[in-house]
Amino acid sequence: MRSKFPIGFLLLVAATFVVAYSTGNLYQDFEITWGDNRAKILENGQLLTLSLDKVSGSGFRSKNEYLFGKIDMQLKLVPGNSAGTVTAYYLSSLGSAHDEIDFEFLGNLSGDPYVLHTNVFTQGKGNREQQFYLWFDPTKDFHTYSVLWNPQSIIFSVDGTPIREFKNLESKGVLFPKNQAMRIYSSLWNADDWATRGGLVKTDWSQAPFTASYRNFNAQACIWTSSGSSCSSKVSPNSGQSWLGQSMDATGQAKIHWVQNNYMIYNYCTDTKRFPQGLPPECSLA
Predict the structure, then answer these.
(1) DSSP strand E in the chain: where?
(2) Catalytic residue among 65, 104, 165, 282
(3) What is the pLDDT of residues 52-97, one digit of tens each?
(4) Closest alpha carbon to 148 in 59, 256, 58
(5) So what's the pLDDT on residue 8?
(6) Of 2, 17, 184, 247, which cross-links 222 as Cys (Cβ 3.0–4.6 Å)?
């Protein structure tokens, strides 16, 4: 990725943010929000698990709110017949005009591939779905799912391979999430009315409980605080904050094209039936 240093932006936020690095301990970074004992932090804070049964799913959220960051988490998804289940991992602000950056993993029948669903919301408006199959079995081992979110773009990556970029095209009239701090959320829940083959395949509760696992959270990010100090008004490649100025280079673009040519199964930017009045403007501008 090439680097651009948005000095004007950094000066603007200098009074409201502090740079934070994750502690490596999930107890310190996250809190269980629902699901009773179905959500657990284990192994002295090194592992977090969410479970779903017929009564309830479960979820957690970050203790901090972030505005821009490079955020990584390793997930191991529900194995076997996971049809009807959704494992959601995303950033979101609150309210009807919220911003949101989504990874959602749609379960499937045993042996069939998971669908990785991505989306970006700005001021409550989404409808920017792209969906992919993965090039590995995400239930056999942990894999790293990452979001790089800075003033230039949002980049989704899997095991370091970028799969999608949503550029800041505000100069062209396209809204971009840059003004609302977001927490990290994750949940495991039942969505068999739509998640697998449009709801044709229902959850097999004889396979419950369904469990997803998380570890190795890492965040280089600006934490929103009421009295914070600064991300930094000076960004250099050795400052640990160079992610604030990163954008996609030719190598990254080539990787995105490889993923999208071989593993993309839905792209809102090609769905003319859904948008009969014309595709969203970012589809041609990007």
Answers:
(1) 2-3, 17-21, 30-34, 39-42, 47-52, 58-62, 66-76, 85-92, 100-106, 115-121, 130-133, 143-149, 153-158, 161-167, 183-190, 210-224, 246-247, 264-267
(2) 104
(3) 999 999 999 999 999 999 999 999 999 999 999 999 999 999 999 9
(4) 256
(5) 40
(6) 17
Please determine, for residue 165, whether its predicted confidence score (pLDDT) is greater than 80.
Answer: yes
Closest CA to 69 of 213, 143, 177: 177
C-alpha to C-alpha distance for 286 and 280, rounded to whole angstroms:
11
Residue 266, classed as helix, strand or coil, is: strand
Contact 221, 82 (CB under 8 A): no
Rounded Cα gap, residues 208 and 204, in angstroms: 8
Measure the CA–CA gap between 165 and 120, rounded to whole angstroms.
10
Extract the tokens encoding 72: 């990584």
What backbone phi and psi angles, to 5 degrees, belong to 220? -105, 105
* Spatial distance between the Cα atoms of 31 and 70, rounded to a whole number of angstroms: 20
What are the structure tokens assigned to 96, written together? 């009807």
In tens, the pLDDT along 116-151 reads 999 999 999 999 999 999 999 999 999 999 999 999
CA distance 285 to 72: 28
* pTM assigned to the model: 0.89
The verdict on whether 100 is a catalytic residue reads: yes
Nearest to 120 by CA among 84, 148, 160: 148
**Predicted local confidence at residue 106, as pLDDT:** 93
Q: How confident is the model over 193-246, as pLDDT tens digits?
A: 876 777 777 899 999 999 999 999 999 999 988 754 335 544 444 456 788 888
- CA 104, distance to chain mean position in Å, is 8
What's the rounded Cα separation, in Å, for the pair 136 and 143? 9
For residues 230 and 17, give the distance between their C-alpha atoms in angstroms, rounded to a whole number.
5
